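stuck on this chain:
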Amino acid sequence: MKALIAAGGRATRLRPITWTINKHLIPLANKPMLWHVITKIVEAGIKDIYVNVNPGEQEVMREALGDGEAWGAHITYVEQRGGARGVAHVVANAEEYLRGDKFLFFLGDNIILGSLRPFVERFLREDLDCLLAFSRVKDPQRFGVPEFREDGTLKRVVEKPVQPPSDFAVTGIYFYNDRFFEAYQNIQPSARGEYEITDVNTWFIDHGRVGYEEITGWWKDTGTPEALLEGNALIKDDLPKNHYAVESEVPIEAQVQGLVKIGINTVITPDCLIRGPVVIGSNCHIEGSYIGPYTSIGDGAKIVRSEVEHSIVFPNVFIDTRRRIIDSIIGKNAQVVDVQGTHPRSGHRMVIGENSSVEL
């Protein structure tokens, strides 16, 4: 089998972070989001991987992920042609690479726990045309939702229904054979002018052999800041214990509790408390600070006399504040500091970009 990962789009809900970085490269546990996706795909036995990217982003993606050698796989980057015309069009755009093969189509902002191997094995064993992965959710109206017949077979898939026919969401994990391209030729753009993957799946239900599996662990669509932070936390819980290694010398007076990873050449001063799970990159400086659970700190960050918890801190960030930072995403090269020597001395001094969110 082959795999196609969708890694384009503009991620407007994650601005201003995504003004300068593709969403799929946002670090979770200090690895790009796609790193975790590719790891799951390769663990399932698929090593021929194609990554759909925005025009002009091939080199950025290649610099972040390489050619697949890190996984013993082969990665090909495919630029999206014809603009943003829907999720189904992403697959159609890669037809020359997928025609004649069975393939996994994975939306790159989906994070899952557990293995994809049982899905692959069933799809191949039963020679299905399509296999869909479902997950129970509290708000199915935000997703494509399956409707079932009385015998439990799939009747159709409804996109973002006001009255959901079930409490399942169709996740961004799909298995197809190359009849996909026949299905694509038989659907029309939706009211918003896009080729919907929901319509492809409904075509398969009407014309092919379709199966479905429920994801019994967690599944997270990381489309919002809150979901990103939750995905970051879930990944930390899923990492093997041997991932958490302290590669720098830490003073015996410093308190390091639980699962903590600290990269090389990082300085931790004696008056620090680090309570895991926490991942701290290389060449960081943590001084007189508390780093709380589910925090990721990128390479080169400097944190002084501060408290940071349940947050994603990008590389080369500088934090020096007496205000406690929680549930935050702080972009590359940003700084968060207390007012020092400016007038007036009360109040909050800020430079806030478009689409930012600040709570004081």
Notes: The longest helix spans residues 225-238.
